[in-house]
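Hello again, I could really use a second opinion on something today. Take your time with it, there's no hurry, and the full record follows here:

___
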Amino acid sequence: MKIVVVTGMSGAGKSTALNVFEDLDYYCIDNMPPELLASFAELIRNSAPKTEKICFAVDIRSGGLFAKFSESILGLRESGIDVTVVFVDCDDAVLINRYKETRRRHPLEEEASGNLMRAIEMERRETENARTMADIYLDSSQTNMAKFRERLRSIFAENGGKLMIDVISFGYMYGLPKDADLVFDVRCLPNPYYIPELRLKTGLDDEVYDYVFGHEEADGTYKKIKELIEYLIPLYSKEKPRLVIAFGCTGGRHRSVSFARRLAKELSAEGLSVRVEHRCAEK
């Protein structure tokens, strides 16, 4: 039996995640108190017919019961159950905008005397232990829900247990991706931005790609990074189902996109499960 526990910040995308797991044929239960996880898992394990895949959404709506989250997860793992904890997060500013757009109330807003920012700060403190226990950390700040669903499906869709590798490009001027495991800064390399005919193009255009890797230092840097990544992939595959590799340049349009494009293509050619995302290429 496999159990996925989805937790994280309210408004970050937990309901969307639960819908994805339903589509993947998981038996899904929302707003499960942590203390009931073990009992419910045992009930399902002894039921007939058996349910092999279960997804629980556990979050701050449980009130004081949420304090038992870490203890409950450890108990499940000690009993031999395969448990994966997914923590869904989002920047505070984006969360505030989402609440304003949907006009929904934050679960802790009443405790925070109606102050949304204070409610979010309270939730961050109370979910910190859950975040540190997470096997998979997903940040929805810089992506729409369609891409968020696609990312989640790619991780949990049946793929023979192979490691799912996400290769992303981003711009430092928009902030680092919080869900990245490995981050490589390529701002030290020649920048196509200063070539007038390349400025409005991206690393998805062959002219930019060829310009970037036409420089010996860029090609050499890539080969060194690729060598390190190939060494690390087998190690990561023993510990987690997803590896996020990020390349960053100033604006996230030229150098980082070229590096992500090349790595994703080469890893895919080696038979690895790879998804590529260019978070800032259109900004």
